Amino acid sequence: MRRIIFIGMIAVIWEVTSRLSGLPEFMFPSLTHVLETLFNGLISGQITEAIAKSIGRILLGFTIAIIIGLILGYFIWRYKLVEDTLGFVVTALQSIPSIVWFPLAIIWFGLNDFSILFIVTIGATWTMTVNATSGFKNVPQLYQRVAKTYGSSGFHFLRTVILPASVPQIISGLRIAWAFSWRALMAGELLGGGGGLGQLLEMGRSLGQMDLVISVMIIIAVIGTIVDNVVFSRLERNVQVKWGIQR
Amino acid sequence: MYLTIDGVEKSFVNESKERVLVLDDINIDVEKGGFVSIVGPSGCGKSTLLYLIAGLDKVDKGEIRIAGNEVKKPGPDRVVVFQEAGLFPWLTVLENVTYGLKLKKMPKEQAKAKALEILKMVHLSRYVDAYPHQLSGGMKQRVAIARALVMEPDILLMDEPFSALDEQTRMVLHKELLEIWRKTKVTIFFVTHNIREAVLLSEQVIVFATRPGKIKETISIPSMKNGVMPDSVTLNTEQRILSILQEEIEKVLKEEMGDDYSFETNHIHRNDSGDMGSNI
Hints:
heterodimer; A: 247 residues; MetI-like fold; 11 helices; 83% helix; 0% strand; B: 280 residues; alpha/beta; Rossmann fold; 7 helices; globular; ABC_transporter-like_CS (chain B)
């Protein structure tokens, strides 16, 4: 309830300042104008298509990143040599903002979908790797011993003990990885084109349509919030309830 | 002999990179269906010995054999019940109990039926679908015991299984464990630091000396297989073990607190006969 009132207040202030500011409509559009554009965009399919395109990209990139992250995490956890070598490099790579890879990606793959996919993936991979590694490392010795005395080993051991035991850490890894790849996606689309919400932003800028730009920003915020609050928070809470972790 | 521990030696490397001998020339024979307890001060290597039997760790010298076969790696014929239950929090009670059975490739229905039967034996039928965090400490330990028993192991290895529980729960579980032991005829190898527990439960108590861990004395408990032992007998045995252990405890304390430390028992409260009025 408090949130709704607060958002309402922002809306009112926005509407009023925009009308009183004296700036031209295309620079500082009023809320009503933005909502109109947003609505029309959703109806005409311009914004909906862009959303679909962006979501499709991120799902693909994100999935690849998770798989690579888990596999790398496994090797870093399992072999000391890999930890000392690759583990160190991954920590360094993690500190590079993923958009920094874009110039390289353009040269390697050209200014196309694949380049965007590349930076989306790479934005999430390293975080996922780091989190998976620490998740695997923090599996209590007790669980491992128990499983081994029952004769578990190899892939079964990994599937029934190591993976489920590190689920809490993996979920928080997913959450951060998602945030990184979502940002990388927007930056990539903004620069790379090829459709999607980011490109719609760029289009709005070149056409001088700030109402469109702000509409897209709202969509970006909404999707980000939904994914974080609905998908990941719920996942996290489910695990906490099941495991009896109090917070 | 069924379980044979033959000249086993084990050492670890400590923080300052020195080799420390933990177990020195251990020889133990356990009969099939026996109940043997190991007592000793903390750090005497009793848990290490249990892990060696479980196959979780490797011996440096000597051999551990079960029914003539050398122990090389962990296996479902020797199941461990740890101090903390170690139930998987992501599985229900039933799934925890069937974990080992599924590994044995037992059909689902059969595994479930078997698990339910065992859970009934440990009085947990009502908690089949509960998650571990919903159970009390004693219930968790019961599940852990059920999970071990359902495998029908040849040897049940218990590593201070009741030491984290409160007194009442422990007493109840002692009784239940004895019932289970008599019913299933499983061989139990029990590690504890609680002398009373060892005397109460087992047929044979092995007292460990510490640093390095070796066998100081083996004491057979006179038992009346069917029922309760007179308190005086139990207490007497307890006192005997305590006096054997005293020297060891003193050794540990001296090492930890300096040489001038001396540990004396209070003879007023517990004299040898266990009878407070005998010296009046």
